Amino acid sequence: MTRRVRTRIAPSPTGFLHLGTARTALFSWAFARHHGGDFILRIEDTDVARSTQEAVDQIIAAMKWLRLDYDEGPYYQMQRLDRYRQVVEQMLAEGSAYHCYCTPEELDAMREAQRARGEKPRYDGRWRPEPGKTLPAVPDGMKPVVRFRNPLDGDVTWNDMVKGPITISNRELDDLIICRPDGTPTYNFCVVVDDWDMQISHVLRGDDHVNNTPRQINILRALGAELPQYGHVPMILGPDGDKLSKRHGAVSVMQYQEGGYLPDAMVNYLARLGWSHGDDELFDRDQLIAWFDGAHLARSPAQWDAAKLNWVNAHVIKNTSDAELAPLVAQHFAARGIAAAAAPTLEALCALFKDRCATLVELADWLGMYFVEVSPREEDLAQHVTDAVRPALRALRDRLAEIDWDKGTIASSIKETLASHGLKMPQIAHALRVLVCGRVQTPSIDAVLALFPRETVLRRLQGV
Ligand code: GLU
Fold this sequence. Notes:
Blueprint: E1 6-9, H1 19-34, E2 38-43, H2 53-65, E3 72-76, H3 81-94, E4 97-100, H4 104-116, E5 145-148, E6 155-160, E7 164-169, E8 177-179, H5 187-197, E9 202-206, H6 212-222, E10 229-233, E11 236-237, H7 253-258, H8 263-271, H9 285-291, E12 302-303, H10 306-318, H11 322-335, H12 346-353, H13 360-367, H14 378-384, H15 390-400, H16 407-421, H17 425-437, H18 445-450, H19 454-460
Parallel strand pairs: 1-2, 2-3, 9-10, 11-12
Antiparallel strand pairs: 4-5, 5-8, 6-7
Helix pairs in contact: 1-9, 5-6, 8-10, 11-12, 11-13, 15-16
Bound molecules: glutamic acid.
């Protein structure tokens, strides 16, 4: 590869960062990093009516959260209008674009007539200058659009990084409007000028853009620009086989942050949606970068699998250090109005409970008993805090009031109490869990108790 690898993600800020766009961003980022190239963020905000600053902020926040760092940008298309106009002028001067004065009514009539003849509706080239052709008279006071002079014959062919060779006949393509009567450039044109100016070498994007590609290639050729390589990634489907949408659950990346997913898990999971490296399911960023060479991109659409994402997230949680987890869990508590951030035991709590959690929300749910009062269910109390164990619980409570407060001493206190009352471990352990933790299952009870302040345990055992 001789050309410097430069990729980009070009979201339109009309909403949050969608999972599909995040995946394309991830592929583009990983590909650039693999080749030691550049990754660029470009905000395609020419749809002024639908673009918002809030969406821009959210997109940038999501990229930051996923740690998809970009080397250039964000570039904003609305800040490049002069440049687009300049290229339009250049193309007009060179003859690769021309003014068209058709009124909307004329275009409607043209389409009607074509349909009536059983033809596919398309611009018929009436304002397209040709040697020896007489153009219609320019109507007074009317502002023209600018159309690209698409080649009439031949094919556009590219070797898609995902789909393989694609050929579209130029007969399928009519002369695209590149600039509206009010002087605003159109979407396909801005993309072309940007990809050219930004020297983009590889364009990875959703396959909803496949139809744009031959048009963009023709314009790039007319400009004498070096073509990027294109790769069109299939859509992500929901579990029912339809395009993934809100109907299927959260599609905004940042909702996954709220849902307690770790960015490394999202990156791992998203990477596997439409790309593979042998049978590897779990990998970190460095491995992804080392492996992501643009090969093995799947041609068929991937299906969203919430259970698999949970599995990956559980794995990442398990492998994240407690020092890193603690502040993240504290954020989830803060969102619930609980100040857990300062708890000296938070790291130890993460260590004890993280193995059983698919999300940080679940982890915070588990740890809730350490920060807010518990309310054991009546049926658990009835089943486990029986008259047979009450005397032992009282005796244990008295012991716990006096011992050194550590796991080992708590464990021996429990054992001694069991022995002196002729009980079995599960009997007292279950009762302790119900009373102190408000639930029947927990990790090893001595470890669980040791991380409470002693007073909390004594208080929750009061009155047994
Ligand atoms: N703005 C386009 C989108 O959000 C991206 C187009 C492209 O990648 O060329 O779908």
